[in-house]
Amino acid sequence: MQTDNELKEMVRSKYSEIALQDKETNQSSCCGAGGCSTEVYNIMSEDYSALAGYNADADLGLGCGLPTEFANIKSGDTVIDLGSGAGNDCFVARRATGEKGKVIGIDFTPAMIEKARMNAEKLSFHNVEFRQGDIEHLPVSANVADVVVSNCVLNLVPNKAAVIQEIYRVLKPGGHFSISDIVLEGALPDKWKSVAELYAGCVSGAIEKQVYLDLIDAAGFKNLVLQKDKPIIIPDDILINHLSKEEILAYKNGNTSISSVTVYAEKPLADQPKICIPGGGCC
After folding, report:
1. Please, is 209 exposed, middle or buried when counting C-beta atoms within 10 Å of its C-beta (0-12, 13-18, 19+)?
2. What integer pLDDT is reported at residue 43 of this predicted model?
3. pTM for this one?
4. Domains of the chain, with CATH numbers?
């Protein structure tokens, strides 16, 4: 089994490679111009193009939802985007928060940070900044954000409890988050856990939906709402790269399902004591 650091380095390497490609190259990378599905890490993406503030140069097709659409961002808000990539959600958030607000994108891949900063400079956005950092240890002070968003990133992080606690820490009392992510019901085939492509593709790093929601509740968040729940179907031409025909049939006939969820929750106005979370430490 890979260590947490090994998993992080594998993700960093994969997303550094992606950062150097454009969206069209990413979406055709499994077999060039052939007639197959896209890589597992972008079969889940949704269309941002109708959202105000969308910038095509910042859209690498890597998300699994539209969290900024559901995030209730208001003019003047400070917004933090976890796993900001080339800046896509940051620029949509910036349109909502306006000139008086601020948007901070956090990503631990230097190539993504560089690409996002270049995109922001081209757009002359002076209230959007990008910081390199690990979202398990956010490079942000406590109680600064009105809203936190994230798009298909927590599933890539080994210690999800730590990230959720960090979201709680950086939100102002009364602040909220809207996060899109991949979750499971049932168990994935064991061999998937050792396949780097499936981890970087947001599948084998996902956890059970109820466990995910329980971590949010245990961190102290209130008024949790499941804003969207969309099934994810992995095409056969991707499955065949990792499973035999017999294993594919067993997977399809089993009780495992993969879905993209968008989850909303609020930090209480009055900070309340939080309980210990296994693997995440005590607050």
Report:
1. buried
2. 64
3. 0.83
4. 4-266 (3.40.50.150)
